[in-house]
Design a protein that fits this description.
alpha/beta; three-stranded antiparallel β-sheet; 4 helices; globular; binds inosinic acid; binds magnesium ion
Length: 182
Amino acid sequence: MSMEQNIAQILITEEQIKNRIRELGEVLTAEYADKDPVIVGVLKGVVVFYADMIREIRVPCQLDFMWLSSYAGTNSTGSLLVRQDLKTDIRGRHVLILEDIFDTGTSLDFTVRHLQEKGPASIKICTLLDKPERRRPGITLQADYVGFTIPNAFVVGYGLDYDEKYRNLPYVGILKPEVYEK
Ligand code: IMP
Ligand code: MG
């Protein structure tokens, strides 16, 4: 069974992603000129977006990564743990978090709180996808830069997975419900 057969609809094409990343790149290049930012990626859904996005941010910068894991179960309201922390000392530094998707907001909220404790000069969030309808009540955090605001559907591709699969699709697609309802 090919991956493509399980995609109901291509929501965002490769070309749309590329164009949007170029636009965001111009904004972020202006924002971070002379700020020597630390660009943080939260593994592993962000890897594809991260690799494309950083090449459009044309300023000197440092790259670093964090890896979170769920403390209990796989349910996204469960508490989170830092499985791998940054290696960079971000005290007094400008931090730009890149994320694949801002869904319930649990992981971004946790990430921002965790990084805030390290005393950075600033923290901003750039997320490729934003699903505002799914936000958990009580989360007031907002993304500073959003690639695409999408409806409440489960999407895969361009780094996003279902059961660790589909991350390598070059576009963002909506998975056929029968794939995960079976
Ligand atoms: P949160 O609910 O905002 O904390 O998002 C947690 C994580 O759930 C994200 O980083 C993604 O890995 C995953 N996620 C949320 N929505 C989707 C989706 O539509 N497709 C694939 N993964 C998703
Ligand atoms: Mg995932």
